[in-house]
Amino acid sequence: MRSVTTVKSVSIGLIHQLARLAMLVLVCISGNAAAEPLKVVATFSILGDLTQRVGGERIEVLELVGPEADAHVYQPTPADAKMIAQAGLVVVNGYGFEGWIDRLIKSSGYRGKVVTAGAGVRTLKRRQPPGESQDNAQDRNSRNGEVDPHAWQDLSNALRYVDNIAAALSAADPAGHEIYRANAEKYKREIVALDEQIRTSFNAIPAEQRRAVTSHDAFGYFSRAYGIGFISPVGINTDAEPSAGDVGRIIRQIRRERIRAVFMESISDPRLLKRIRQESGARIGGTLYSDSLSKADGPAATYLDLMRHNARTLATALAQ
């Protein structure tokens, strides 16, 4: 009788130990599952940075068009379709900026949420490039829409981007709602502070000196927000080619209005602006970042760095 009791005690104790071990395994498995970051695909590097700042460690951001790459001429690959298929959320700018995104999402089979980060911002209409015929303008608008998509170039618009991204992340990952909300509010305070700094720096420059030439028409929102007049030989899309007449008109305008500087863009071929500089007498004011961040060791590695760098580069050149 004593030996039976002992066997039973050992068996019950072993069962309890195995049960505790099983519970520990389940806890570890569930903990790892909970710790798995939400995969978010952003269409280009600026959106990727905005999204990462809001999501923090709870998300993994994958960018289709990386730093120093041009979304206007981007060609999707099968690997990009696979990336989207595995995502928990896709973040796009909207307003025709990513003309390829609908086809890419369709080919990927993705059925999840697509958030338009720029939804609800104060938009601008696309400006018609110099010398473009009305027929060409209508055709372009029918393909890309009438709205200028570069809305992030106004920091006040970035506040709406952040809110839209935070709401989408919270919907995709409700458990992280408070984290996303707190990250978004902190980030928005930084955006507002930089916006005030930029306004102050440009207010110190006489209005007649606040004129600049850039490669393509990506700075309309910056112009509206901070009072800088921009002209460019190319319209919204970098794949457009200006005619000789367009370039001549720009050169005459620079001379007539005594525009002080032309600015390169990180994603554009510099040869056209170098020619304009040589023939107009304007100087090179520096390099601006319009549609893409720089690499990590560059001057525009984050969205706030991009806006800070562009403002500092413009202010330094235009104040001379």
List keywords for this structure.
disordered N terminus; 51% helix; four-stranded parallel sheet; 12% strand; Rossmann fold; alpha/beta; 11 helices; 320 residues; 8 strands
Model description:
By secondary structure, the protein is of the alpha/beta class. It folds into two domains: 38-192, Rossmann fold (3-Layer(aba) Sandwich), CATH 3.40.50; 203-318, 3-Layer(aba) Sandwich (Rossmann fold). 51% of the residues lie in helices and 12% in strands. α10 (271-280) links the parallel β7 and β8. α2 packs across α6 (155-172), α3 packs across α4 (101-108) and α7 (177-203) packs parallel to α11 (303-318). It starts with a helix and ends with a helix. Mean pLDDT is 85; it is low at 1-10, 25-33 and 130-144.
Question: Total number of β-strand segments?
Answer: 8
The CATH homology group name of the largest domain: Nitrogenase molybdenum iron protein domain
In terms of quaternary structure, the protein is single chain
Q: What CATH first level of the largest domain would be assigned?
A: Alpha Beta
**With helices defined by DSSP (H or I, 4 residues minimum), what is the helix count?**
11
Domain module tally: 2
Overall average residue pLDDT: 85
Tell me the radius of gyration: 26 Å
End-to-end gap: 103 Å
Topology as a string of helices (H) and strands (E): HEHEHEHEHHHEHEHEHEH
- Helix fraction, binned, reads 40-55%
**Poorly predicted runs:** 1-10, 25-33, 130-144
The structural class is alpha/beta
**Major sheet characteristics:** 4 strands, parallel
CATH T-level topology of the largest domain: Rossmann fold
Q: So, CATH architecture of the largest domain?
A: 3-Layer(aba) Sandwich
**How large is the share of residues in beta strands?**
5-15%
Strand line-up across the major sheet: 2-1-3-4
**Structural shape:** globular
